[in-house]
Design a protein that fits this description.
It comes from Methanobacterium spitsbergense. Keywords: Membrane, Transmembrane, Transmembrane helix. This is Zinc ribbon domain-containing protein. The termini are far apart. Helix content is about 70%, strand content about 0%. The chain has about 90 residues and is an all-alpha fold. It is rod-shaped and about 100 Å long.
């Protein structure tokens, strides 16, 4: 194990032999970092589950709107061409 404060290797004891930092506080810091990382992963998953469908809905909505406009323009041009005797 290595000291969180100075990076020195800790073999035995309750304190770092280089800087005097308590090993128990080092262990607590490691545990709290793991909990924070797990919480972040949960929030990232929730955000993806909410934002990904919304983004897909938005993109598909734009695509269908554009497709509808293209079909409308083709229909108008075709009818205009037919009415002119073409």
């Amino acid at each position: 194990m290595y000291c969180k404060e100075c990076g020195a290797e800790i073999e035995n004891g309750k304190f770092c032999s280089e800087c005097g930092t308590s090993i128990n506080s080092t262990k607590k810091k490691e545990g709290s970092e793991k909990k924070t990382t797990k919480k972040l992963k949960v929030w990232e998953s929730v955000a993806l589950l909410i934002l990904l469908p919304l983004a897909l809905y938005w993109i598909l909505g734009i695509l269908f709107a554009v497709a509808g406009l293209i079909i409308a323009v083709i229909y108008i041009l075709y009818n205009d061409h037919q009415s002119k005797g073409g």
